[in-house]
Amino acid sequence: MRLLDAVFIFPIFVNRKLTGILSLGRARRGLPIASDNLDQLMIVANEIGSAVEKSKIIEEKLQLERKMYENEKLSSLGRLSTSVAHEVKNPLSSIKTIVQVMREDLRKNDPLQEDLAIIVNEIDRLTKVVNQLLQFAKPSSEVKANVKIGEVINSTLVVLNHEAKQNNIVTHCQIPNDLPPLATDEGAMKEVFFNLLHNAIQAMPTGGKISIDAHYLHNNHAIQVTIADTGPGIPQESSQKIFEPFYTTKQTGTGLGLSIVKKKLEDMDATIHVESNGNGASFIINFPLNEPSLMTT
Question: Taking the complete model, does pTM exceed 0.90, yes or no?
Answer without folding.
Answer: no
